UniProtKB/TrEMBL annotation, chains A, B:
Positions of the Tryptophan synthase beta chain-like PALP domain: 91-395
Name recorded for this polypeptide: Threonine synthase
Modified residues (N6-(pyridoxal phosphate)lysine): K126
EC class name: lyase
Cofactor(s) demanded: pyridoxal 5'-phosphate
TM regions (residue ranges): none
SUPFAM superfamilies per record: Tryptophan synthase beta subunit-like PLP-dependent enzymes
Species name: Streptomyces griseorubiginosus
InterPro entries membership: Ser/Thr_Dehydratase, Thr_synthase-like, TrpB-like_PALP, TrpB-like_PALP_sf
Keywords: Lyase, Pyridoxal phosphate
UniProt GO MF annotations: L-serine ammonia-lyase activity; threonine deaminase activity; threonine synthase activity
Amino acid sequence: MAAQTVASTTNSVDLGPAAALSCRECGHRVPLGPVFACEECFGPLEIAYDYSAYETEELRKRIEAGPANIWRYAPLLPVPADVADKPNINPGWTPLVKADNLARELGVTGGLYIKDDSGNPTHSFKDRVVAQALEAARAFGFTTLSCSSTGNLAGAVGAAAARAGFRSCVFIPHDLEQGKVVMAAIYGGELVGIEGNYDDVNRFCSELIGDPAGEGWGFVNVNLRPYYAEGSKTLAYEICEQLGWKLPDQLVVPIASGSQLTKIDKGLQELIKLGLVEDKPYKIFGAQAEGCSPVSVAYKAGHDVVRPQKPNTIAKSLAIGNPADGPYVLDIARRTGGAVEDVNDEQVVEAIKLLARTEGIFAETAGGVTVGVAKKLIESGLLDPSLTTVVLNTGDGLKTLDAVAGTGLTATIRPNLDSFREAGLA
Amino acid sequence: MAAQTVASTTNSVDLGPAAALSCRECGHRVPLGPVFACEECFGPLEIAYDYSAYETEELRKRIEAGPANIWRYAPLLPVPADVADKPNINPGWTPLVKADNLARELGVTGGLYIKDDSGNPTHSFKDRVVAQALEAARAFGFTTLSCSSTGNLAGAVGAAAARAGFRSCVFIPHDLEQGKVVMAAIYGGELVGIEGNYDDVNRFCSELIGDPAGEGWGFVNVNLRPYYAEGSKTLAYEICEQLGWKLPDQLVVPIASGSQLTKIDKGLQELIKLGLVEDKPYKIFGAQAEGCSPVSVAYKAGHDVVRPQKPNTIAKSLAIGNPADGPYVLDIARRTGGAVEDVNDEQVVEAIKLLARTEGIFAETAGGVTVGVAKKLIESGLLDPSLTTVVLNTGDGLKTLDAVAGTGLTATIRPNLDSFREAGLA
């Protein structure tokens, strides 16, 4: 993953407004390529853009005339201008639901919205990031799309690779639940069980990337990570456009690696700089499950560094014990006047039911975490109920049915009216 | 459900362009109301519209400027003009996927598309029909939304009622699989298990509608059926608009009750009459599972009537043994030059995998039926591969995981490169 790899792959790369990779820590720049760590300081690389050609109202019109998916924001993403014509899974433009019933229950008066990403092609926000990684993989001439995963990501990679005609090879712990295996295997790519736990899977993937056997392989969340991560910016873009090109006052965002939260902040900042929204304060709140709350613990202790935890929570899609972007999340929460909070598994389940009962949205456990944290933050006074608030639901309840398995029939009756009346249903 | 009920409920009803209910058999007209059978001949009632005020290009612009859901077609549906401002689940505007990989495998050269309705709020096309029924329920002053169901419909009704602030009461057989119970129960409405089979559930619901205890209850697929059924027209509208206001040459549509297929035909006819698409021939093909193929059997035998079957297929969402709209389906298939075909359960599973492998779309068993039937129709020469063809996927694979439970790991390795190479994965 050294500079020479970059030099050999970037000459013909067209990724639209993406100008270079830039180190988040030291600012060192390298050409666009399949690298993710700074050669100077080992800091994370991210995309630097050239947006200088854009005139605000022209850009707004171009976006509004674009397709009903993330490619309406192609001018702001590391993708070629004709991306919408290429085979991809085209996620995004998911509903921003005005959650008036939930607002009443929580006492929010300033407008409460759920950004519901369960409508994406494989029903999680991962489709957004994988769609980006796929375009980078195409630009770099890769032919295999890969990842390590224990759930949502596996399905998103399998589906995107199938649509785009890539080979896919997804690595998972060999003893994953059968339901999750089916959801990943159905797309027909290689699905490789690794005899070991998720850490073993990740270690093996890193080894493979450095080996000739991994040549031509794009690991969406490793060597394509700088491109992949940019997909989360589209959540910020969509929220603002769906609010009528307005910034929300407060956002509640789940934290797994923390990447999504940092990219939402980046997206909001870009919209301000481009003049697409007015420059006004907003607060970003991070949400974790108590059983995997390293960022929340650090936030409350006033620390700048995040101490890893061993995850133990039903919110498995957020169960990253050593979140790479944890320190950046802490910085953003503090800088914007937000906070980081966590809820326990029981509160997660309660929040899933609360959201379903009030708004008809069946969220994954990660959505239970954000709704539960929003409730807790309102109760503790950290979230201002008089302000416009957006809570993210990043996945689908159908994928975490076990978490709410206790939910069942409210009555059982015989098929006649007497039995119906006896049950008090009339 | 007699005429006097109608008279007392329709004076203040605003359902947009819906002018009356009209009998499909004898043409007898009655005012809009919660009735579904003709008082003269017991034929099915459907909505008659007044579209006379529309100028074609003005209407087209109005639709194109509308929201990214079915309410963009509000001018053509039995809903008030301000429907988009009311709390509803807002389904529709789901992707029409250009399925080039699948086309290559099937030998289709004229353009093959999947209309993928798994992106709807509760991941099936039922959200379209329930959203309509909800607006009718609101117009008629109902306060409880109800249905009998064994699956997709229960979730759609629960979610819509929750969003709109209706009470919901869904009736299911008491011994339904636990996963399906959870998907229906999560929305917090009444979920009543009936000691009996699905026929018993339906019989009980009919009894309840005729009883004072059922007053104020809207059964989406019984006393609200004429409104409910219109939701399927939006599939036709979207397909044509997404093709650039063009009719497809061929459509492959699943058959359960047959209502969806007849309403798709109605929607296409309306677009022609309104001048929104050119008047040209199209063929509608019906798809069933062999284990519940009463319409297919009748079609092949040249019959006009449909002989009921006892369903036995994994495609449970299509398992209606006595399809009410069967004769109309036969008529449409014959009139348009289409056909009705069926595939067995093994072919359904193969087709689910084929669609996932080629296009990254994980379909419910009903989607396996349509894709499998499309394949069979091409092989038999009934479907012309040189013509533009749209195949419907009406549901989500996550809801019928059992059907593909055999899908699994392609390899298991130890976490090292030697094991990786031994498995032939390099």
